[in-house]
Amino acid sequence: MTQARHRSVWKRLGAPLAGLLLLPLAGCNMVVMAPAGDVAAQQRDLILISTGLMLLVIIPVMVLTVLFAWRYRAANKDAAYDPDWDHSTRLELVIWAIPLLIVIALGAFTWMGTHLLDPYRPLGRVAADRPIEANVEPLEVEVVALDWKWLFILPQYGIATVNDLAAPVDRPIRFKLTASTVMNAFYVPTLAGMIYAMPGMETTLHGVINHPGTYDGFSSHYSGAGFSKMRFKFHGVDQAGFDTWVNEARTSGQTLDRTTYLELAEPSEGVPVMRYAGVDPALFDAVVNLCAEPGRMCMSEMMAIDARGGLGLASLNATLPLVDRTGAPRGATVLGPAPRFVASICTEEEALAALRDRPKDEVRDRFTAILGLGLPRPLSALGNEPVISRADAPLDLLSSL
């Protein structure tokens, strides 16, 4: 009677209990194990191989744990009792040799996979049985992680989009990535692995999509209040579909220049898809070098100056307070000085252009080297030759300024 009642209770509660146990799996997405791109497929294979090699040790250990517990239980009087046993050459060989071989195999597969799947490494194939043809030009995509949205610039087509990206099937893609303010992580699981995007730096990712469809892309690194809505759609389409997508951007009538970019870079959440028919060709490099804002020196310029010895004490006067578009301080600290940034320094061409309308005598005095009493002329920073001042130049050369 009791067993029948137990069976009846299990019939009533078995299915609901099983459903509760499987409930945590409802949020799982198998896209990593069923990717649509060759790079992601190779990463999946590496995961499966590594997991299989580790299970070669884990499964026998789990089985033997149960077997030993059952065989040498206190109630089993037939089990051999040998308290003085302390060594077995065969057992030691099995315990050490098998894990050692597994570690060697796991290390070899991991080392090869790490180098073959290096995100900076150009692709050698679009699929397992299809190498890249010599005349195929990769699709260039410049990615900027903003707060909290994704900006995609396609320099080959002169367009840009926000939170929307498309690529032709079986065409290699070369991503160049950076961020505007804080570190983010670019991730399209079905396409390729995750790669970080950091302000002041440029990272690279290569990938390819092999199956048409619309896939999710997002940031996999927490970056603030709007992180959860920092998502975009990635469309794998044929060439005709890609041309249509490009034409939609070209008919938007909007242009992404420096001013528009600075407005777009302001923090915002849940931004809808936006398209731009034209893009400032130097915008991405300016974002990487942290000089998209007017009057700010680019890091590349600063490094070039430092490589030539720097500006010395004069550079102390080349900084300005760090403020936002409204004039409010940015990054203010309770302790220590307020943040400042290095102002842009004019180029030689800009300096000469500013002197064109000035009197010749003023120009001559401005370019005359400063000499101390009895001191030699200052030496060139690039060698031991004396610096030739513009005052020594013919007047007709000065008149051309």
Automatic annotation (TrEMBL):
It is a multi-pass membrane protein. It comes from the Bacteria. It is found in: Cell membrane. Residues 136-248 form the Cytochrome oxidase subunit II copper A binding domain. InterPro entries: CcO_II, CcO_II-like_C, COX_ARM, Cupredoxin, CuRO_UO_II, Cyt_c_oxidase_su2_TM_dom, Cyt_c_oxidase_su2_TM_sf, Cyt_o_ubiquinol_oxidase_su2. SUPFAM superfamilies: Cupredoxins, Cytochrome c oxidase subunit II-like, transmembrane region. Keywords: Cell membrane, Electron transport, Lipoprotein, Membrane, Oxidoreductase, Palmitate, Respiratory chain, Signal, Transmembrane, Transmembrane helix, Transport. Gene3D superfamilies: 1.10.287.90, Cupredoxins - blue copper proteins. GO terms for biological process: ATP synthesis coupled electron transport. GO terms for molecular function: copper ion binding; cytochrome bo3 ubiquinol oxidase activity; cytochrome-c oxidase activity; oxidoreductase activity, acting on diphenols and related substances as donors, oxygen as acceptor. Residues 24-121 form the Cytochrome oxidase subunit II transmembrane region profile domain. It holds the Pfam family COX_ARM. GO terms for cellular component: plasma membrane. The chain crosses the membrane at residues 46-70, 91-112. The keyword Oxidoreductase applies. Coiled coil: none annotated. Belongs to the cytochrome c oxidase subunit 2 family. PANTHER family: CYTOCHROME BO(3) UBIQUINOL OXIDASE SUBUNIT 2, CYTOCHROME C OXIDASE, SUBUNIT II. This is Ubiquinol oxidase polypeptide II. It comes from Aureimonas jatrophae. The lineage of its organism: Bacteria, Pseudomonadati, Pseudomonadota, Alphaproteobacteria, Hyphomicrobiales.
